[in-house]
Amino acid sequence: MLIIMEDSYVERILLTREKALQIGEDLSEGYKRALGKIYDILYYDMLKEEIMKEFIETSPERVKELKEELKKSPLISKLRKFIKLTGPNEVDINILYIIGDILRNRIIIPYSYYGDLNYKKNLNNLERGLDILLDVHLYLSDLALQVYHNRLALPNFNQSMTEIKDLMYRTNQNVDKETLISLAKKEAVLRCVKNTVYDLFENPDKYQQLIKKDNYLDEILNTYCK
């Protein structure tokens, strides 16, 4: 039987396909940038022997000490193990950017520029946090999928919707209701992921106790997704 489709239907299918391809390309590029940032921080900033230009104003001795500390640390092997679990999706991209931010702004910059010995605690927390992240990564990915497929509503969704509407108004953008809901879901998920992962690296002991609870997902929702 010959099925004749209306032109508008065909156009919608094509537009949906083009949109999906564009989203895929954007996620792929975002993933590459996130990985590239971590690589640059570790390899160009820390693991090469010469001192980079951006560290000229720092103490050469401290930079050298930090390089040696990172070379001895299990951080890189743990990070490599975690990266194997990731892919070009919004959750993983944001987690990788958080790791890069902690590396630079809580470890490298504080000690190289200011001699802040708290970097050792932050490095240890990052190492231990990566071990925990190996266990909870699947939960965070699943949480996002449940939200995107309307099987789970986050407590912070209404707040995210309000903020997205305000942003659309301030930037004079006019989008349909479906797009607004999609953007609000994304904002709510990424805020939840951000709060969860930063606290995981800040307080690995507390988080280790959290994941032992039977209602772990409820704990995430009530603690980090408001």
Model description:
With 226 residues, the chain is an all-alpha fold. It has 9 helices and no strands. α3 packs parallel to α5, α4 crosses α7 and α7 packs across α9. The longest helix has 41 residues.
SSE arrangement:
Blueprint: H1 7-47, H2 60-72, H3 75-83, H4 90-114, H5 118-148, H6 157-170, H7 177-202, H8 204-210, H9 216-224
Helix pairs in contact: 1-4, 2-4, 3-5, 4-5, 4-7, 5-7, 6-7, 7-8, 7-9
Question: What is the domain tally?
Answer: 1
How would you characterize the largest beta sheet?
Answer: none
> What's the quaternary structure here?
single chain
Number of DSSP E strands:
0
Helix proportion range: over 70%
Shape: globular
Cα-to-Cα separation, first versus last residue: 53 Å
The percent range for strand residues is under 5%
Instruction: List the uncertain runs.
Output: 1-15
- Rg, alpha carbons: 21 Å
Question: What do the pLDDT scores average to?
Answer: 83
Based on secondary structure, the structural category is mainly alpha
Summed up, the helix count is 9
Order of helices and strands: HHHHHHHHH
Short overview:
The chain is 77% helix and 0% strand.
What distinguishing features does this structure have?
226 residues; mainly alpha; 77% helix; 0% strand
